[in-house]
Amino acid sequence: MNDQREVYTFGPGPCILPLSVLKKTQEQFVSFGQTGLSIAEISHRGPVYQEINQNAQDQIRKFLNVPQNYKILFTQGGATTMNSAVPFNLSEQNDTANYLVTGFWGKQSFEESQKFVKSHIVSPLPQVFNEIPEEIQFSKDAKFSYYVENETVDGVEFKTIPFSPDIPIVCDMTSSLGTRQVDIEKYGVIFASAQKNFGPAGVCIAIIREDLIGKHRKDCPQMLSFEENHKTKSALNTPPVINTYMVGLTAEYLNQTGGLEYYSQLALKRQKVINIQIKKSLYMMLLMVLMDFTKPRVHQIQYRSRTNIIFHLQKEELTNKFLEEAKQIGLVELKAHASTGGIRANIYNGMPDAGVNKLRDFIVEFQNKYQ
Question: Cβ(142)–Cβ(97) under 8 Å?
Fold first, then answer.
């Protein structure tokens, strides 16, 4: 985790990947194993890919401690496609589903779901996503309850499950899966696009309780069917072989370098490193990180994201200088989402400690230069 690089990307995804994973992929790209073929040329119908797929499943199951009665699928289209797949697999058109919206991606999920199910929003949408509602009114007749655990755009994260497990809980954990302990058995469906903590874009990891597979609607598109994807071992169409291979390598790396408990603690440690330094920089006007400032976007400390740290400087020109000077020393993709503005440091599992420390030191230097 201390590998030195010339450039560290703090982008929201694609994320920075472990150097050993990149090097291993490079070694295997031209000639994979004993096949004599590039990994880009391997058939997804043959035993070599089946071994790649199974290894990726096994490594994820080990890392996340996934029970045997949950199936691991690798779907395509990311979390965005899962927003459509979930209603098709867990409900009928006239059924009700609970949606708790606390940020940009949850809102997108809710809006998409309205095409396919009677979506019940359990708490009124605020003008600014800066907290998690204390009271929710959910429908007891709902077929499932849906939420996004960590909102990458808004920097809001759940630390507890907001719904009762009496109704199947569906959770988009795209930016949090692998950064904290999760009791898988409390969920019906968990999914996460790989490009945050598990590899390159192109694979979505879906963890589905087996009794929820095979309940899709008659009009469910084949590519969205959990059952079809399960029966074909995530190869209903030609899967992204290289991406699946890298997901397996990344999960194996995470297992070998400490496991989930280690990375849970690491996420908290890194959040603290950056937040403490920001707090020391009193010239910064923070919208989402510090509780010391009574600004409109400040939310409760217990709901701050551990992986997506968002802050603003006093003046827009300072923000532009910060981004440009950071880029000059190899700290890139720090610009926040257009809907919030400011600066966002996305710190996922693949980020070396050296990258976090370099960002911390740059904040100090920037403060000394412009205060």
Answer: yes
